[in-house]
Specification:
Elements lengths: L2 H9 L1 H6 L2 E8 L8 E5 L6 E2 L18 E7 L5 E6 L6 E7 L9 E4 L11 E8 L4 E8 L20 E7 L9 E4 L5 E9 L2 E8 L8 E7 L21 E8 L2 E8 L4 E7 L6 E2 L11 E9 H8 L2
Antiparallel strand pairs: 1-2, 1-19, 2-3, 4-5, 5-6, 6-7, 8-9, 9-10, 10-11, 12-13, 13-14, 15-16, 16-17, 17-18
Length: 309
Amino acid sequence: MKIRSLVFLMLFPFVAIAQKEAYLFSYFIKNGEDGLHFAYSTDGLTWQALKGGKSFLQPLIGKDKLMRDPCIYQDKNGTFHMVWTSGWWDKIVGYASSKDLVNWSEQKAISVMEHEPTAKNSWAPEIAYDKKTKLFLIFWATTIPGRHTDVADSEKEKGLNHRMYYVTTPDFKTFSETKMYFNPEFSVIDATIFEKGKDYYMFLKNENPKPAEKNIRITKANSALGPFPTQVSAPITGDYWAEGPTAIEVGEYVYVYFDKYTQHKYGAVRSKDLKTWEDVSDQVKFPEGIRHGTAFKVLSSLLESLKKL
């Protein structure tokens, strides 16, 4: 550390403290009709609800007016962009933006699958940024009957057999045409992207019903746009059903949190090298009723302002 920087920290330690990172988790409860919720953590293990567990934003768009699976991504200018599942059988995804996570822009419907007459849904949209093209990606899971390789007993899943699709955007105002993003030989939902070094890791749920998988796998590429190999890793989660993964780096670990949805609680695994995973589900604590969301970093000064609400 340079002497000038050291002297600055000694004279103004409060500035250094204000710029420390904290961790937020966007999530929904129940069916999503209550809107956007936040929890916070300082260690990646214990998460506490903000605003007494009350909603920060009510859903206004979509057939069902839900706000499920809220994914939030902060761009280099400090704006938070959020996408979400607006309804069980919508062909749109919801979008809004904010500078402070309290005051939000007008909610908009991004038409992602309305050009596909038989598309059933648009689930769990996520945002990533590709440095090479300087484009944002919005990607989600959709079933288009007869379009994908069939999986055994898909009728038990209400005929759902998902693949990942995406659009790109430079500004969240104009969008490319919808394209296939990830097309493995199994039904896939809940993909999320984690950037580490020069690699982009995709954590995803194998949704196959027979034999029942319902676990989290990994594949990686050198671009957020892919292509991502469809030969994915072995499960990184244990002998339980898991969905809705989200990844964040806390200290020396990368944590992947997920919804243990049949047990109505949250779990986590962590790794130092993204190869060997330790299950720490018995060490994490989350607010009661938390459902599929996104973990992301913010400045501690923003967290302190949210804690005052």
